[in-house]
Amino acid sequence: MSEQDGPPPVDTATPHSARMYDYYLGGKTHYEADVRAAEAVVARLPEIVTAARTNRDFMIRVTRALAAEYGVRQFLDIGSGIPTEPNLHQVAQSVAPDARVVYTDNDPIVLQYAQALLHSTPEGRTTYLHADATRPGTVLDSPELGRTLDLDRPVAVSVNALVHFIPDERAPEGILRTLLDRLAPGSFLSLSHGIADVPDREGSERIDHVVDIYRRSGTALVPRSREQVARFFDGWELLDPGLTMTHLWRPDNGPDGGLPKGALTMYAGVGRKR
User: What global pTM score does this model have?
Assistant: First the structure.
């Protein structure tokens, strides 16, 4: 746990994106305000439930592939959210029991449930850090991270379903660069992101309504185009199949990821630092 001052108390009257996401996943860690906001989103954009669940499946496949095929033994999950089994460390350590995992989030309710993230294998280690991803120094320079990960060796960083909550004025590309520049060559970036460039006006209007629901809840939501998301991987080598939809990244259940052809979920990709 962080040695900094404790997090603020949980505000149960205001919807929070992590608890809304938990609702989309069918979890139980949310309050009435979260349910109302999440149901308003689902009413406008029912596809968001599938997007959330395929995003979890994407995390599982990526973690398994990086541990099994690329020999990764260090993972940093930024914006980890409320624990949902299987958690990243469970996937990584099922392949490599000596894998080490650091989780970070800035939601006080995640801290309350962080104990579920700390049940490591005896050979490995897991740590939870209460930190703000928009202040990369709070992550990279924390004693918890330094005791668990060696940044001179490759690390797989996950920023799944996170960057679309960072508005352009907060310079998300700069935040990512600060995080990624400290990593050793051979490190990996796993990123998924809400989509903006839907093929029809009706879909675009529904996304605008969802953005407004989040805005009224006090959370910026910034869907981005494929071109904009691709820029987050500038200078990194994208693994096959490149930047695609979450359900199409090396799917286990057929070439269309078990969804109708042309289904829209989130943009997703995995890059390797040269």
Answer: 0.94
User: What type of residue is 220?
Assistant: A
The 3-state secondary structure of 21-61 reads: HHHHCCCCCCCHHHHHHHHHHHHHCCHHHHHHHHHHHHHHH
CB 223 within 8 A of CB 61: no
Would you say how long the chain is, in residues? 274
pLDDT, tens digit, 9 for 90 and up, residues 215-258: 999 999 999 999 999 999 999 999 999 999 999 999 998 888 99
Give the strand pairing for 100-105 and 74-78: parallel
pLDDT at residue 45 is higher than 50: yes
Which residues neighbour 154 within 8 Å (Cβ) at sequence distance 6 or greater? Answer: 72, 74, 183, 184, 185, 186, 187, 188, 273
Give the per-residue pLDDT at 7: 58
pLDDT at 5: 53
Strand, coil or helix: 256: coil
Residue 219's nearest CA partner among 10, 20, 25, 44 is 20
**Hunting for tokens 């042309």 — which residue is that?**
262
Confidence of residue 4 (pLDDT cuts 50, 70, 90): very low
Beta-bridge partner residues of 88? none
Beta strands in the chain (DSSP E): 74-78, 100-105, 125-130, 156-160, 188-193, 236-238, 244-245, 267-273
**Residue among 137, 174, 192, 180 at smallest CA distance from 155:** 180
Residue 15, both tokens: 């919807």
- Please determine, for residue 6, whether its predicted confidence score (pLDDT) is greater than 60: no
Rounded Cα distance, 164 and 10, in Å:
23
